[in-house]
Amino acid sequence: MKKNDKKTILSASTSSGDLTIGNYIGAINNWTALQDQYNCYYMVADLHALTTPQEPKALRERGLSFYAQYLACGLDPEKNTLFMQSHVPEHAELAWILNCFCPMGALNRMTQFKEKTAKSEKNLNAGLFTYPVLMAADILLYQADVVPVGEDQKQHLELARDLVDIFHHRFGETFSTPDPYIGKMGARIMSLQDPTSKMSKSDENPKSFLSIIDPPKTLEKKIKSAVTDLGTEVSFDQSEKPGISNLMTIYSVLSGKTYQQIETDFEGKMYGHLKIELAALVIETLKPVQDKYHDLMKNKDYLDGLLRDHSEKARATAKQTLIKVYDKVGLYPRPL
Ligand code: TYM
Predict the structure, then answer these.
(1) 228: domain range?
(2) What's this model's pTM, rounded to 2 decimal places?
(3) Does residue 279 sit in helix, strand or coil?
(4) Residues 175 and 306 grouped into a single domain
């Protein structure tokens, strides 16, 4: 029986690069909106981060920084289980089992892997290839019913659903089948420098993304230097005007205004006007988040305490699923 009979949510962000306004709009903002209705698990996916080269000290610091940013964005530790992936060893354990049932062909189809392979052959490793299986393990361990993600993660979620089918076909009902939850707006925020590709937190060009903890001056500069399109009219048209449409999407999500309202507000004005107002809005939206973040980062003992308590809570649930899975596949029971 699930806690309070509420449905369960799991979601996460990989602790590589900087959390961006894309992560905020496409994911964390939705997570906070769902925390009252669901039994929620939100995780810093630090094991996933190892699929790309990381400097150990920076990775360690970033783990805590992401955790503090989750809290600063409004995730309430009283309402959610907030933990670090590597603190719950069951993730790696279930991933191994699922790897043994995951067809190679399914992983070969993953767009994100193909894109990363196309960009550089240099850092390819087996972890990058099987990453969606670890992601499936993250979700299935908690019997998650719903997984709030941006568009880019939808295919990975489909793989998790396929793995549930494969496993159930062989061993009978074991997991909940997770459904994606994709927010209506801002499911895909685009790069400020190349509005035809996704805003990515690990982009080598920091001007392409707005970090949640960028200082106000930096946010302003980055927005002002965002690539826009031919023409001057502020109107929403993703194929003809991808740059200005992306800025309008961010503006729309943060202000609650529709594209039509924005077009009316900026009638007769130019792209530059929208950029100035967007910068003010982003700075105003992120100010309370940044203030809270800086306070939290001064209180490492508090953060460490939360991490300890919440990983214990997460483990209690994860363990139950893992024991069930080990039993189903025929592993000899662990001594208690
Ligand atoms: P990650 O860290 O790339 O992104 C975290 C969340 O933010 C969303 N997102 C975006 N949404 C809109 N526009 C963007 N430009 C944008 N960039 C990122 C992502 O869709 C995601 O929801 N593999 C995952 C992390 C993960 C996970 C999981 C997610 C690990 N285990 C289990 C869900 C369930 C990832 O790398 O997301």
Answers:
(1) 206-295
(2) 0.95
(3) helix
(4) yes
